[in-house]
Specification:
- This protein is mostly helical.
- Helices cover 52% and strands 0% of the residues.
- The protein is built from nine helices and no strands.
Amino acid sequence: MTFPAKYPTLNQTNLTPEARAILERIIRVAFPHPNFPDAAYQRMADRIVAEADSSTWFRVVLTQGLIALGAQSEEPFLELSDERALAVLRRVSDLEFFGFIRRTTVLNLYDDPEVWEVLGYEGASFDKGGYLNRGFDDLDWLPTPRVEGAAEQLPDTGPLPYLVGQPAEGPAAAGTDAAAGSFDSAPDRDAAAGSKAARAAGPAPESGTDAQAPQERGGGTK
């Protein structure tokens, strides 16, 4: 394994102007936003270079990856159309240098104030006193909702014909009371039905010691 720290000259590796242009083109193709200003992409490329400068390994990986990107197609990467450039990036999407570019861009491109302005994001509110007193419900950066027609007018049902918590009058109330009464008397009805069935069955036959008790008291059968 080769350790870059053993080779001090690698610490002086800098991107050439062409490699710098390739880096910016990669960001544009991988994150296409026609309305984003050029300065946002340029600052993003500067941020990636600064991140790579903090690590010798990533500096070497980034430099070598950008140089090798030209070998992925017959034409220079900067001269490819957006569609063909995207196809080249798909082929190198698993390489470490592209992963470094992608994750750094995801974390920083959309944190640019100029990008916020394009997207309609008003930015942080803490340093401005918060949103409570400066339009927390201001949604003018969202599309205007489409209205299909006038709002449907619901009929006014008026007050209830009886007080809440008291039974209503009339046939409906009678039916309700009857149902309530039958529900309340259900245990009594079941007990009465059980007693009626017991009377129809007659007395229960004697069994066990109780059936023999009269014989023992009378001295046996005659």
